[in-house]
Design goal:
This protein is mostly helical. It has 1 helix and no strands. The longest helix is centred in the middle third of the chain and has 171 residues.
Length: 173
């Protein structure tokens, strides 16, 4: 039995070593399978992370495009507001210019009328002064003519008296 035991023992050892080699290969295969499964899980999680990043980037891209559209719309609104404001200011300035032109015309018309009235008044005063001057001149001429006539009468009377005195003197001589 002891040889049998020895044979069994060597058979067992050989079986153990054969099993050990098979078990070793299976363990290596199992370890390799676990490693591949772990790598697969890591890759799947990386794929999921990349999908989330891609989804986030797409959302960010969409958000940025919308923001760009909003900014463009706001810029157009601001441009329109500025244009409307400038148009209102231009319209207001045109009205102000028209009002100033109208005021200028009215002032000019007023001044023209005032000057025309003053000119007419001065002409009337001139006519009146000319008439007054003419009347005064006529009065002076009349007065002087009366003086001249008086002096002429006096001169004639004196000449007549002188003639008479001469005749009387001649007669007396």
């Amino acid at each position: 039995m002891s040889s049998l035991q020895g044979t069994q023992s060597s058979s067992m050892e050989s079986l153990d070593s054969s099993m050990s080699a098979t078990e070793s290969a299976a363990e290596v295969e199992a370890v390799r399978l676990v490693t591949v499964l772990q790598e697969n899980a890591v890759l799947k999680s990386e794929i999921e992370i990349l999908r989330l990043k891609c989804k986030n980037l797409l959302e960010e891209n969409k958000r940025l495009r919308q923001a760009s559209v909003n900014i463009q719309a706001q810029a157009e609104q601001e441009e329109e507001f500025i244009s409307n404001t400038l148009l209102k200011k231009i319209h207001s300035l045109k009205k102000e210019k028209e009002a100033l032109a109208m005021n200028y015309e009215q002032e000019e018309e007023f001044l023209t009328n005032d000057l025309s009235r003053k000119l007419a008044q001065l002409r009337q005063e001139k006519v009146h002064l000319e008439q007054t001057l003419e009347q005064e001149q006529e009065q002076q001429i009349s007065k002087m003519q009366r003086k001249i006539e008086k002096l002429e009468k006096e001169t004639l009377a004196k000449q007549s008296t002188l003639e008479q005195l001469r005749r009387e003197k001649i007669d007396l001589e």
